[in-house]
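User: I'll paste a sequence; please echo it back and then give the predicted structure.

Assistant: Echoing your sequence first, then the prediction.
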Amino acid sequence: MPHATINGARLWYDDQGQGEPILLHHGYTASRANWMPVAERLGAKPQRYRVILMECRGAGESEHTAGGYTLEQYAADVIGLLDHLGIDRVTFAGHSMGGGVGYLLALDHAQRLERLVLMAPIPSGGIGTIDPELRAARIDERRRRDRASIYARYQAMRFREDVETDAWFAFRADEILSVSDGHFESGAEAMQALNVSERLSSLHTPTLMISGAVDSLLTANLEDFLRLPNATLEVLSRAGHEVAVHEPARVTEAIENFITHGVVTAATLQARLAG
């Protein structure tokens, strides 16, 4: 798979298809794998979609840089990759932390986005204060390479045994252990520091919010959806935070419908009738 040096970091990416470009960005402590069930479905239509996957600095197969672990830098790296690929405008889809990146892209680089897809995004006002003792314990757990504890914690949240296999949780534990210390520690601080709630009323890029009904972020997602002036909503009843893993077919369908039909709400339908 190719790499490109973007803003001083050697970043992994994949670029397949000849159709409309859509870039999929993963969440905190994750990688391309968390989008793959959807990427494969979209990629099965190469004449319709150009599917771009990327892994941010400090994660997956991208370089573990000395610094740059902020949402602003992650957003700048997205722009840098688009420039590298010669893409002027793209549909950006961000999961979790990637959704925070999406907010910044739409607010600060709106001219580069055709559409925005937010899948279980972190709250626009940040993730809140992390208990210092809990944070220290998580950092220590990683430094001790305590794979068993990470595996057990994630497995305890399983509710979809059809897709959340033991192998999946083992992989997630390995993902968490594989990210750089800078990404793990500073990335968490960056998600706490995000504070764009008051700016969402000016975010006019067509937006699709996809949320899991079993995700603890659902309430925050709904509150942010109501702040967005040009957005539509999809809530999946059998999905938690790993929405693309739990419901890949329905996520793919939602994205395809959004690309085809745009924002569809009661207000847009009323406007159509009035026209």
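The domain at 3-274 is CATH 3.40.50.1820 (Rossmann fold). The longest strand covers residues 9-16.
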